[in-house]
Write a structure and sequence with these properties.
Layout (H helix, E strand, L loop, with lengths): L2 H12 L5 H9 L5 H7 L23 E8 L10 E7 L6 E11 L1 H8 L18 E9 L12 E5 L12 E5 L3 E3 L6 H4 L3 H14 L6 E5 L4 H12 L3 E6 L4 H7 L3 E4 L4 H8 L4 E6 L11 E9 L12 E4 L9 H12 L7 E6 L3 H10 L5 E5 L1
Helix pairs in contact: 6-7
C-alpha cells in the first residue's frame, strides 16, 4: 500500500490510522467504497494497474483540457486561496462529470485551506482544493455507469475532498451515487447549499432515531445545518426546541421551531425550562459540546459534529456525525431534493462570489454571523 493511501485516504473514511490487516478485513466486510477497492485490495508491493482514486475523485488516466480551481499551494489564512490550473477529470466507470457552476463555502473548507490536519497531507502534493458541495450541469457519464441522470441535467453533488479533488473546481467527476438532480425551480447556486449540509442532518436524525412526538433540541438553528435540522425534524413529527439570538428569533420561528430559546452557554437550562424532563435528543450544530449534555434526559442521545464525544453519564449516548459515510447515499440525497421541491426545506443563500474572490468568502465565513451559505460561482 502506498504511504499516501494509508495516511490520507483511510483516515477520511475511518477517522484514524489503519494497518494493512485492518484494511483487508474492512474490504472483506464491504466497508470501503467500490471506487477505492481496486487499489486498496492490492497488497503492498503489487500494482493494481490503474491510477488510484482519492476520496471520490475521478481516475485521471486520460485528461481533458485544463480547468480552473480554487486551492492552496501552502496552508494559511484566507489569503492563501488562489486560482490554480489543473487537468480536467474524465468520468470513470460508475462516475459522472459535472461542469460546476456553484460551490458552497462551508466551515469544513477552512480546515482544508489552513491545513488543520497536516498529517493527512504529508504525502499528497499540492494544490489542495476545498469544497464538499457542488452544483452545475452533467456533461459526461462514465462507461458502464448505471444512472437515470442524463447529459445536460442540472445536478448537485456531495464531494469528498482529497488533494486537488474538491468542489471548488470548474469540473469534477464523482460517483453517480453522490449526485441528484437540482430541485425543480431552484438555481444551481441555491442547490449547492443542500447536499453536504442536508445529508449531515439526515445522518444525524437517522442515528438519533427519535419517534414522532419526541423532543429534539437544536443548537445553531439559524445556520445552514441547524436550519435544515429544524425543518427536517418538524417534517418527521418531532417537537423542536431551537436556539437563536434576538435578531434571529423570527427566522428560527419561521423555520418551524416550536420553542425558541436564547443562544448561549445556558442552552441546557433553557431547554429544561421548556421541557423539564429534558430533550430526547440534541443536534449540536453550534458545537457547544459539553454545554448541551444537561439538556438531554437520562439515556438521551446527542448527535455531534467534528467528532466530539463527551463523558458517558446518565446513560447518554453520543453520536459523532461524519457525513462522508453518506457520500454514496443517492436515495437520501434525492429525497432531500424532493423535500426542497415540496417546500419542506428552504435553500438559503447568503451571498455569491466569483471564484476569484474565494478568499473574501472565507474571511466573511470566519467572521461569523452568516445566515445561509456563501457560494462561489464558476
Amino acid at each position: 500500500m502506498p504511504p499516501w493511501y494509508a495516511t490520507f485516504v483511510l483516515p477520511y473514511f475511518y477517522g484514524g490510522s489503519q494497518t494493512w490487516g485492518e484494511t483487508e478485513s474492512k474490504l472483506t466486510a464491504g466497508r470501503v467504497p467500490a471506487s477505492l477497492r481496486a487499489h486498496a485490495a492490492t497488497p503492498p508491493g503489487q500494482s493494481p494497474g490503474i491510477t488510484a482514486s482519492l476520496g471520490n475523485m475521478a481516475q485521471r488516466q486520460r485528461l481533458d483540457p485544463g480547468m480552473r480551481a480554487v486551492g492552496v499551494t501552502e496552508f494559511g489564512g484566507p489569503e492563501a486561496l488562489r486560482i490554480v490550473e489543473l487537468p480536467g477529470p474524465v468520468a470513470g466507470p460508475g462516475q459522472v462529470r459535472i461542469r460546476v457552476h456553484a460551490a458552497a463555502v462551508n466551515p469544513t473548507d477552512t480546515g482544508v485551506r489552513s491545513g488543520a490536519r497536516p498529517d493527512l497531507y504529508k504525502d499528497v502534493p499540492p494544490p489542495y482544493v476545498p469544497g464538499m458541495d457542488a452544483a452545475g450541469v452533467l456533461e459526461q457519464i462514465g462507461e458502464g455507469t448505471s444512472t437515470d441522470l442524463r447529459i445536460g441535467d442540472h445536478v448537485m453533488a456531495i464531494v469528498v475532498p482529497a488533494g486537488s479533488h474538491g468542489a471548488y473546481s470548474e469540473r469534477i467527476a464523482v460517483p453517480a451515487e453522490s449526485v441528484a438532480r437540482v430541485p425543480a425551480g431552484a438555481s444551481d447556486v441555491a442547490a449547492a447549499t443542500l447536499p453536504m449540509n442536508g445529508l449531515t442532518v439526515r445522518l444525524a436524525l437517522d442515528v438519533l432515531g427519535l419517534r414522532p412526538g419526541q423532543t429534539l433540541a437544536v443548537t445553531g438553528a439559524a445556520g445552514a445545518v441547524g436550519g435544515y435540522a429544524v425543518q427536517l425534524a418538524k417534517a418527521e413529527g418531532l417537537f423542536v426546541i431551537a436556539d437563536a439570538s434576538p435578531a434571529d428569533e423570527q427566522l428560527v420561528t419561521d423555520l418551524g421551531a416550536d420553542v425558541v430559546v436564547r443562544r448561549g452557554e445556558d442552552f441546557s437550562e433553557q431547554v429544561r425550562e421548556a421541557s423539564p424532563d429534558g430533550a430526547d435528543g440534541v443536534i449540536d450544530a453550534a458545537l457547544l459540546n459539553d454545554a448541551v449534555v444537561a439538556a438531554v434526559r437520562d439515556r438521551g442521545r446527542i448527535a455531534t459534529l467534528h467528532g466530539f464525544r463527551g463523558e458517558e453519564e446518565r446513560g447518554i449516548a453520543f453520536y459523532p456525525v461524519l457525513v462522508r459515510s453518506y457520500a454514496h447515499e443517492q436515495s437520501k440525497l434525492d429525497r432531500l431534493r424532493q423535500q426542497a421541491e415540496d417546500g419542506i426545506l428552504t435553500l438559503r443563500v447568503a451571498r455569491t462570489f466569483p471564484a476569484e474572490q474565494a478568499a473574501e468568502a472565507h474571511r466573511i465565513l470566519e467572521a461569523g454571523g452568516t445566515r445561509g451559505r456563501l457560494v462561489l460561482e464558476f
